[in-house]
Specification:
The structure holds two protein chains of two kinds. Chain A is built from 13 helices and no strands. Chain A is mainly α. Chain A is flat. Chain B is mainly alpha-helical. Chain B has a single domain, classed as MetI-like (MetI-like fold, Orthogonal Bundle). Chain B is built from twelve helices and two strands; from the N terminus they run H-E-E-H-H-H-H-H-H-H-H-H-H-H. Chain B has a two-stranded antiparallel sheet with strand order 1-2. In chain B, strand 1 and strand 2 form a beta hairpin. In chain B, helix 3 runs parallel beside helix 7, helix 5 packs across helix 10 and helix 9 runs antiparallel to helix 12. The chains are: A mainly alpha, B mainly alpha.
Chain lengths: 305, 294
């Protein structure tokens, strides 16, 4: 549009003045248009964020209010008159939430740790050594991504009762490690393949053992280890199925199971119900906010690759 | 290969292979085997396909099974048609290039429901739509016609973060030059999304669909938490997961059966296998030829 052919200087001057005005106007119009689209994008995402967080905020807010206020004005923040911790007090009196949190933390941490360690060892072996069955073994381990381990529950419960592991946290850990390994091995194999070959070869030339080489390469795949750890954590913490079937006893119950079981018992004690829900939700939300970057990249890569 | 490295190969692989084989693969295979047996006086007796015939044709059992199957298809359909378009829209807006620092904040906040336990999500929504709070007058979870769609939408609300993140992962990796080339040619953001970015998302639609399919045909927690094992009212929200639980462990009135439970699991396995096979044969292959052609 502004391509004035350089013929004579007079022509050029005449052409440039309106061109500058024209460009100015176009810039302003473009800016206005961009501002409008920016506002639209913020508007839509803002509304959706409200929809995503509103229900959670509502529950936490009302868990801190007196019974009357929960029903009279559910959509206001607790004030000095309506603020109460009754719900939390009755939850802690009637249910041993410290034990349940301890169980969830122990089961989740140990399962995630073993998944990462075993997964890294297997991924290292499968990518490092040129052995003919390596691709077959990798495919075998990857089957578990497609086929949910829940389908073996009938047999798992029989096996656990033969091993005397029903109502133990060990049973949960064993199942969760088996459940987490497929994704861990597949994901970490990608990271190990990208790790530098020179470092490993240099270490071997220096006479390092295979185990030492593994120790040297491991720090290079740290982002992968973090992604696997964070991505395998949520399904374990949030699982209801296996705690319900393999370890439902009061001594071994996880938070997720306890919330499910206690809500029914509290009946119409709404303060206790809301407090139980908040106790179940808030710790995980805080943890997620801290690790959200690793989590989302881990999840995205797990499927992208 | 040297003996030392061969030993190392075995040592590195053994723990993963052992745990995975013992507690994932063996139980699934053994459960498939159990579905061909029945228990008589404490002994396993081979009965061929009798359990399958019973579940699929018996006057009492078959309606339950087909009801759960149809409900599960509906559950999946709602996820596919509601969750994926919303996830795509959110991902497209996040990567529109208009957000700067707010991009990460929105992404994290919108993903929060996905991190919650299904149990909590179920109760939170149960409270919000309960007539007690007066937001909704009709008992959505208490009516046969609305229970399952309501539960499906609760689940969509929770899991929309997953397709969002998957689509997002593709969109952020599209080279800036492609977009700028379009802009220089005078294309609007809308046109750039549909003409430049959308075709690159095609493989992700396949992946998101199959991931949703596997998760949905294996779902249990939400229905159980909100409606209990009998997935009421009158089994209108019964899906494979709750049917499996009842058949295996029984409910208040009926006793459970190990072998029939295993048979339901085998039928779930078959359903998932058919889905995965269809995905691999049709979608995956077509995508590959599409990529080769373009």
């Amino acid at each position: 549009m502004t391509s004035t052919t350089p013929s004579t200087s007079v022509d050029q001057q005449r052409a440039e003045a309106p061109a500058a005005v024209d460009r100015d106007q176009r810039n302003r119009r473009a800016q206005r248009r961009q501002l409008r689209s920016r506002l639209t994008v913020h508007g839509v995402l803002g509304v959706y964020t409200l929809l995503a967080l509103g229900p959670i905020v509502l529950i936490v807010m009302n868990s801190l209010k007196s019974r009357g206020a929960i029903f009279d004005s559910p959509f206001t923040v607790p004030t000095a008159e309506t603020l109460t911790f009754d719900g939390y007090l009755s939850v802690f009196q009637r249910a041993d939430f410290v034990t349940y949190f301890g169980n969830s933390i122990a089961v989740t941490l140990i399962s995630v740790f073993l998944t990462v360690v075993f997964g890294a060892m297997a991924a290292f072996a499968l990518t490092e050594y040129k052995i003919r069955i390596a691709p077959i073994l990798l495919a075998y381990l990857a089957i578990g991504i497609m086929i949910p381990i829940r389908l073996g529950t009938v047999s798992l419960l029989q096996m656990m009762s033969q091993l005397g592991l029903v109502n133990t946290r060990t049973a949960l850990v064993l199942v969760y490690v088996a459940m987490g390994l497929p994704l861990a091995v597949v994901l970490l194999s990608q990271y190990f393949r990208q790790a530098s070959v020179e470092i490993r070869e240099a270490a071997r030339v220096d006479g390092a053992s295979e185990y030492r080489v593994f120790g040297i390469v491991l720090p290079l795949v740290r982002p992968g280890l973090a992604a696997v750890a964070v991505a395998s954590m949520l399904p374990i913490w949030n699982d209801l199925w296996f705690p319900l079937i393999l370890a439902p006893s009061d001594r071994t119950a996880t938070v997720t199971l306890a919330v499910q079981q206690f809500i029914g018992q509290f009946g119409s004690d709404w303060n206790a119900v809301l407090a139980t829900l908040s106790l179940g939700a808030v710790p995980l939300i805080v943890l997620f906010m801290i690790f959200s970057r690793q989590f989302i990249s881990g999840l995205a890569e797990g499927v992208g690759k | 290969m040297q003996r030392g490295t061969r030993l190392a190969f075995v040592v590195f692989l053994a723990p993963a292979l052992l745990v995975y084989t013992m507690f994932a693969i063996y139980p699934i295979v053994d459960s498939l085997r159990l579905s061909f047996y029945t228990v008589e006086q404490g002994q396993l007796v081979f009965v061929g396909l009798a359990n399958f015939v019973y579940l699929l044709t018996d006057a009492f059992a078959a309606p339950r099974f087909w009801n759960a199957f149809v409900n599960n298809v509906q559950f999946f359909g709602i996820h596919l048609l509601v969750q994926n378009p919303i996830g795509l829209m959110l991902a497209a807006l996040l990567t529109s290039g208009l957000l700067r620092r707010a991009e990460g904040i929105y992404r994290t906040l919108i993903f929060i429901p996905t991190t919650l336990s299904v149990v909590i999500v179920g109760f939170v929504w149960q409270l919000i739509i309960s007539p007690l709070w007066g937001l909704v007058d009709t008992p959505l979870l208490g009516q046969e016609s609305t229970a399952l769609p309501t539960l499906s939408l609760m689940s969509v609300w929770q899991y929309v973060g997953i397709p969002m993140v998957f689509f997002y992962a593709v969109l952020v990796n599209i080279p800036r030059e492609l977009e700028e080339a379009g802009r220089v040619d005078g294309a609007s953001g809308w046109q750039i999304f549909w003409r430049v970015k959308f075709p690159l998302l095609a493989p992700m639609f396949g992946i998101v669909s199959i991931v949703t399919y596997i998760a949905n045909f294996n779902a249990f927690d939400l229905i159980y938490a909100v409606q209990g094992a009998s997935a009421g009212p009158n089994f209108s929200s019964d899906i494979f997961g709750t049917l499996f639980y009842r058949t295996f462990l029984g409910t208040g009135t009926a006793t459970g059966s190990v072998t029939l439970g295993a048979t339901v699991a085998s039928l779930m396995f078959l359903t998932i296998l058919v889905g995965v096979a269809l995905y691999l044969v049709f979608i995956h292959r077509r995508l590959r030829s599409y990529q080769l052609a373009s």
